[in-house]
Amino acid sequence: RYRVKRFGRGGVVRVALELVRRYDIDGINFDFIRYPGRTFPDAETYRRYGAGMERDDWRRLNIDRFVTAFYDSAIQIKPMLKVGSAPLGVFSNGSGSTTWGAFHSYYQDSQGWLRKGKHDYLSPQVYWDLGATKDDPDFAELLRSWKRNSSGREIWAGIGAYKPEV
């Protein structure tokens, strides 16, 4: 079990828990809970703290620790709180897409968070122009894949409603 203090005094976990404590909220949604990409410059930090793990696994574990620390602490404060996030729309290669997806390229194991009971729902970001190119994922297959891997938790497709062309 990871303690909140592990993430630093001014950490995002501490701030999010402060929201849970101080305000009458029913839920919290994390929008950008991932690395910015494979080329993120963390070589020195990885060298120092990677403990012999593969870099990709270490990065994924960092995000998983955040998710676990927040969820476990928040549910102790407010047991009825709903916690979720808006992961990238493609989880991994083979889930209705030819791209690598969030698991391999951004270190988001969002389906794992559902499996481990550390999220109550996901709202995958399906924001692209569907069918605009031959490389676009099949929308229906992609959502079926999310649902198949939901571990009985809620999946609400996040669509780019701000895009008039969709």
Concise overview:
The chain is an alpha/beta fold.
Characterization of the model:
- The chain contains six helices and six strands, in the order H-E-H-H-E-H-H-E-E-H-E-E.
- It is α/β, with parallel strands linked by helices.
- Strands 1-2-3-5 form a four-stranded parallel β-sheet, with no helix packed on it. Strands 4-6 form a two-stranded parallel sheet.
- Helix 1 (12-22) packs parallel to helix 3.
- The protein is globular.
- Mean pLDDT is 87; it is low at 1-10.
Q: How would the global form be characterised?
A: globular
The largest sheet, given as strand count, sense and whether it forms a barrel, is:
4 strands, parallel
Element string (H = helix, E = strand): HEHHEHHEEHEE
Average pLDDT taken over every residue: 87
Q: Report how far apart the termini are.
A: 43 Å
Question: What key phrases describe this protein's structure?
Answer:
two-stranded parallel sheet, alpha/beta, 6 helices, 10% strand, 37% helix, 166 residues, globular, 4-stranded parallel beta sheet, single chain
Topology:
Elements: H1 12-22, E1 27-30, H2 43-49, H3 55-77, E2 82-85, H4 102-105, H5 110-115, E3 121-122, E4 125-126, H6 139-148, E5 154-155, E6 158-159
Parallel strand pairs: 1-2, 2-3, 3-5, 4-6
